């Protein structure tokens, strides 16, 4: 077998060597919507700035030309390669195929084995709690290649399901929360046997994007956390403080990737339009001033109530293409998120259209599968969105530990979702009576398409 060329695995920086691994997705379905492990990339950026040498193995990145990869979708999105796996015992009742999404495991192992010199610490990320089998597999693989190198697990699964991770993960340390806390920052350097350096400037907001050798897209991270406390969201459990970065640092990151050929940029902020004067407007103004021909995307959805005419015009002028809105429900008197009136929704929608956005690029998220939800309201919301000419998207509810609504989900679900994260998977419709079935799934698909 010819050894694959893997330009990503190169040491960057001087000092103790730390390898970050973004693991595969284990799930019934997965689609790449400008996916990047921003938490892991922030950690690697901090560590390098503090004197470490870092490298990245992203199992979800298009890396080898000899790996068959599905045809790319719009603006760089698309499907992942996949390998079908047996259903986990806990999910035996599901009539769906379960797969590992991402690069082939054996080629990842070969590429890791070729990394020389070996790492002194391995950090594995975790995103969705129910994707933890991918994180555990990455830890196992690291142990196969370097049995004596310490392994640390961090990210959302490690933070929100810590007891489960401690019981099941083959890790030497579990990191709860973000690295920029005093205890977590010290723990990394203690594992390395190194003195603890001060946190670098812009800690938690800088991203080591240069570790991708041929990026097709890049994230923009101007803030961490969210000032709001929506019932279904665990943002406060993951990032207790809402922090915003400097416009100079954010623009420098965009310009660096733009000069490397990137043209698609996705905002990863949970509260993009909150106090935009602090960083967003200065960044967009510089994009326009410098004539950057790029496309901006908002997969995390924007707060509709803030979409006045000026905001929509500035976003359009700077190159926003993919618009995602968080409507959630048209039952405006009983909302689980930031209060939104019918008038605010209609004004925001109208302002987008008057600013010249293409209807094909505007999608609206509607919550589906909440505990004790009246699904008739979901149908009404779909009809309401389609009446505007927008495309509705069902945002399937994920019961997230640490979110205000989680106790209601535990009471409503027939599954032990508090004990086993696999039951938190929104693909099984964990809080919908009867759970997932193909007949209902097809019916909802037809409703979304207006049939």
Automatic annotation (TrEMBL):
It comes from Pseudodesulfovibrio profundus. Its cofactor is [4Fe-4S] cluster. SMART domains: Elp3. One of its GO terms (cellular component) is cytosol. This is Radical SAM domain protein. PROSITE patterns: RADICAL_SAM. Coiled coil: none annotated. Residues 212-440 form the Radical SAM core domain. One of its GO terms (molecular function) is metal ion binding. InterPro entries: Aldolase_TIM, BchE-like, Elp3/MiaA/NifB-like_rSAM, rSAM, rSAM_sf. Keywords: Iron, Iron-sulfur, Metal-binding, S-adenosyl-L-methionine.
């Amino acid at each position: 077998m010819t050894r694959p060329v893997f330009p990503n695995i190169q040491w960057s920086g001087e000092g103790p060597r730390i390898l970050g691994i973004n693991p595969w997705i284990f799930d019934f379905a997965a689609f790449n919507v400008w996916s990047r492990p921003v938490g892991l990339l922030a950690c690697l950026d901090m560590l390098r700035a503090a004197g470490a040498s870092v490298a990245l193995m992203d199992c979800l990145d298009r890396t080898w030309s000899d790996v068959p990869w599905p045809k790319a979708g719009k603006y760089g999105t698309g499907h992942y390669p996949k390998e079908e796996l047996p259903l986990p015992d806990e999910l035996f009742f599901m009539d769906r195929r379960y797969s590992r999404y991402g690069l082939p495991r054996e080629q990842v192992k070969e590429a890791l084995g070729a990394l020389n010199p070996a790492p002194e610490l391995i950090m594995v990320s975790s995103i969705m709690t129910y994707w933890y089998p991918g994180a555990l597999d990455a830890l196992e693989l690291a142990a196969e290649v370097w049995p004596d190198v310490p392994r640390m697990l961090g990210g959302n699964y490690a933070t929100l399901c810590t007891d489960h991770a401690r019981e099941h993960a083959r890790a030497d340390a579990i990191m709860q929360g973000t690295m920029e806390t005093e205890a977590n920052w010290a723990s990394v350097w203690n594992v390395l046997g190194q003195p603890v350096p001060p946190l670098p400037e812009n800690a938690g907001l800088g991203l080591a994007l240069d570790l991708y050798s041929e990026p097709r897209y890049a994230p923009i991270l101007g803030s961490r956390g969210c000032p709001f406390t929506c019932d279904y969201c665990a943002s406060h459990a993951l990032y207790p403080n809402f922090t915003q970065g400097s416009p100079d640092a954010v623009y420098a990151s965009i310009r660096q990737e733009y000069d490397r050929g990137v043209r698609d940029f996705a905002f990863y902020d949970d509260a993009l339009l909150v106090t935009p004067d602090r960083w967003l407007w200065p960044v967009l103004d510089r994009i326009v001033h410098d004539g950057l021909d790029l496309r901006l995307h908002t997969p995390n959805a924007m707060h509709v109530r803030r979409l006045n005419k000026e905001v929509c015009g500035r976003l359009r002028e700077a190159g926003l293409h993919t618009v995602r809105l968080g409507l959630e429900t048209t039952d405006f008197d009983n909302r689980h998120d930031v209060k939104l009136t019918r008038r605010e929704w209609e004004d925001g929608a109208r302002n987008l259209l008057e600013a010249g956005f293409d209807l094909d690029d505007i999608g609206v998220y509607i919550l589906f599968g909440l505990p004790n939800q009246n699904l008739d309201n979901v149908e009404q919301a779909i009809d309401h969105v389609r009446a505007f000419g927008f495309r509705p998207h069902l945002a399937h509810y994920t019961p997230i530990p640490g979110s205000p609504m989680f106790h209601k989900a535990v009471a409503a679900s027939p599954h032990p979702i508090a004990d086993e994260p696999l039951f938190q998977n929104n693909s099984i419709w964990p809080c919908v009576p009867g759970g997932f079935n193909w007949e209902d799934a097809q019916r909802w698909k037809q409703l979304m398409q207006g049939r």
